Amino acid sequence: MFKNTFQSGFLSILYSIGSKPLQIWDKKVRNGHIKRITDNDIQSLVLEIEGTNVSTTYITCPADPKKTLGIKLPFLVMIIKNLKKYFTFEVQVLDDKNVRRRFRASNYQSTTRVKPFICTMPMRLDDGWNQIQFNLSDFTRRAYGTNYIETLRVQVLPRVESQQGLDTLWLNTWTVW
């Protein structure tokens, strides 16, 4: 999507107050919802993702599964509100060995695990709104001993402990720089 685009500074792939915040995202919703609401703390529009199961409600970018983002910028910044519920997000990158690797961060995991194609890691959130910064170049080098080339895909999912409950995620911005 952005492979042939000049990339400098930062590139926003989700901006909740924009006119079409999910324009380049695929939305999967079953037994939940994805909608914009106004957050009382910041008095601004945010994206709410709520679902009963990670496989039934999530957003993925780019929307077309045959395309990739092609973003060369190595830092991923996300602003998310801690609602004291479980969630996870996943970033797929390409390294200099031409291998697709996934990094999955979640607030319900306690240890980091590195497998050949996926690295799962815990993430701690403070109360309220959090700015999360991921240095994808550093993660790729430390986990796999290879060099980051580009970001291919991003996926955001709420996660629940039981089928009876709903989990909610509030997003404000996703920026790569």
From TrEMBL:
Pfam family, one: CFA20_dom
Domain of life: Eukaryota
InterPro entries: CFA20/CFAP20DC, CFA20_dom
UniProt domain CFA20: residue ranges: 1-159
Name of protein: Cilia and flagella associated protein 20
